[in-house]
Amino acid sequence: MVNRLKRGATRANRGEERNPSDVIESTKTRRNVCIVVVGLALTTIAIFRMTRNLKILPSTLVQVPKTSHSSPDGGGSNSNKKIPIKLPDFGPYQPAPVETYVLEHVKELKLDVPMPEWTPSCDVYTDSQSTPYHAQLQDFIVELEHYSKLVKDFQIPIKDLRRNITEFDNGICDLVQLHPGGMQALFSRSRQLLSLSSSGWVEPLLPPMRHAQYCFDTSRENLMRIDYILHDFHALCRKLKPHSRTILVDMGASLRYWGKSPVLDLIQLYSKFGFHFDHIYGYEYEKHDPDQVFNDVPQNLDASYHWINVGVVSDTQSRRNPFKLLQENYSPDDLIIVKLDVDTPALERELAQQLLDNPKLSKLIDHFYFEHHVNQEELKRYWGRSAGISESVADSLRFFHEVRKKGIPAHFWV
Ligand SMILES: *[C@@H]1O[C@H](CO)[C@@H](O)[C@H](O)[C@H]1NC(C)=O
User: Fold this and answer.
1) Could you list the residue range(s) of the whole structural domain that residue 347 is in?
2) What ranges does the record list as Basic and acidic residues composition bias (predicted)?
3) pLDDT of 103 higher than 60
4) pTM tops 0.85, yes or no
5) CA of 158 to the centre of ligand 1 (A)
6) pLDDT digits over 9-24, tens only?
């Protein structure tokens, strides 16, 4: 379900609702007071508009302020010159300290136990002695629920952000900020637990590679939650240009997955924030009844959905490798989202490896979601039967970390 939001933006243009000349004035002083008040109001509006224009100028998009409150950059001495928007550059990947800590202590945390053993991976959340970050992680869980609620209730009065972005102005992106202080403000109690990627703030890479609530309640609902994945839509919006195309590649695209595919939740999430996919390429190995697929694709995706009922392959020269299609048809200006979950560990790992090996792909892809099948005890009842799992939880943490360092915000998928 895509929200068609009709509520207009009402903030501006309110100005003067009463005409002072209509007011019957009994004394001269009252008239004077009125004039002064109206004058002040008009000046305020003028100043407000001016500062807004200044803020919209792209000059200082680069660094995110270290403090969580306010960002009165105020810069922009040349408000009349037209400067093309500069895409944000967050610099090299900055992992949250807790992410680095866990990576450096995989041995102590017993996350590097190799197959054929299976490794419990919830200790960081459930054992207060496991890391020095235990208390902050509890705060993080609370803040994450709050964030999810904000996301759930979020609405914007425009359909497609790109229509409101020009070559010179992406101030519209402020509309998709959940908090004026940005993501950091929403996670201020546990602030150092966010990582900074090439698409803005993201969740830290941590076991159990699912929502933390899964450690406390292994319900199917918690298993399939995707709202532990943080999206900095403000940053993502500022990466858009008016001509950017928006693409989702879904490898392992069955739409019948325990009822509803979580990828539909992901598509809905993006659309809620004003990102609509021009093309969705859904690759699926298992042969599906075309009538059933047709019925399962939500009608609002009819114009964008491409159902490709063949399996993907890792051969870089094959037209069944979706990365070939991306490289030959799209550019870094486009917004490209990739989801990989084909339940064949060797194949998906080979495909994922191409993100590390091919710098062109890291320029193209803006978010990567990957269900990496490893020897994680909590998921053994689902993964235990799939042949070919050869890597450990530590391998997975390292791999995602490396992909992020290459410039692709990678997330554990469900
Ligand atoms: C966004 O663009 C549309 C179409 O150009 C326009 O009608 C609408 O007023 C704009 N919305 C805002 C909030 O600027």
Assistant:
1) 97-412
2) 13-24
3) yes
4) no
5) 7
6) 333 333 333 343 444 4
